[in-house]
Amino acid sequence: MATYLIIMGAPGAGKGTQAKLLQKRLAIPQVSTGDLFRYSLKNDTELGQLAKGYMEKGELVPDSVTVAMVKDRLSQDDAASGAILDGFPRSP
User: Fold this and answer.
1) Are 57 and 15 spatial neighbours (Cβ–Cβ below 8 Å)?
2) CA distance 30 to 36
3) Other residues' Cβ atoms within 10 Å of the Cβ of residue 67
4) What is the C-alpha to C-alpha distance for residues 63 and 54, in angstroms, rounded to an integer?
5) Global confidence as pTM
6) Which residues of the chain have pLDDT under 50?
7) Using CA atoms, how far apart are residues 84 and 28, in angstroms rounded to an integer?
8) In whole angstroms, what is the distance from residue 27 CA to residue 45 CA?
9) Contact (CB, 8 A) for 32 and 87
10) Which residue among 6, 57, 71, 82 is buried most deeply as judged by most CB within 10 Å?
11) In this structure, what are the phi and psi dihedrals at residue 26, rounded to the nearest 5 degrees?
């Protein structure tokens, strides 16, 4: 059975720090929406191009794009046993 943890908190609360500690202990990947955005933009993926259009206008990337990025990441082999979601879900 897969284990999924969601880390939520205010900016600067230490979500990433806690997620990294849990990642080492549980041997499941940390999935950070910020990392997903940076990866998608750097690698010019289709979802990255969609996100870039919103970001260049100073708008929030729609949840549909963020959810698609997270789903893609969770479908990778290293996430078969679960994942730690850092910064997801988010709400304005």
Assistant:
1) no
2) 11
3) 13
4) 12
5) 0.85
6) none
7) 7
8) 27
9) yes
10) 82
11) -95, -10
Do the Cβ atoms of 84 and 26 come closer than 8 Å? Answer: yes
Mapped onto helix, strand or coil, the DSSP state of residue 83 is: strand
Beta strands in 1-92 (DSSP E): 3-7, 30-32, 82-86
Q: In the numeric block, which tokens belong to residue 42?
A: 């750097």
Question: End-to-end CA distance of the chain, in Å?
Answer: 32
Q: Provide the token pair at 2.
A: 């897969």
Where are the domains positioned within the chain? 34-92
CB contact at 8 A, 34 and 41: no
Query: What is the per-residue pLDDT across 49-74, written as a single tens digit (0 to 9) for each?
Result: 999 999 999 999 999 999 999 999 99
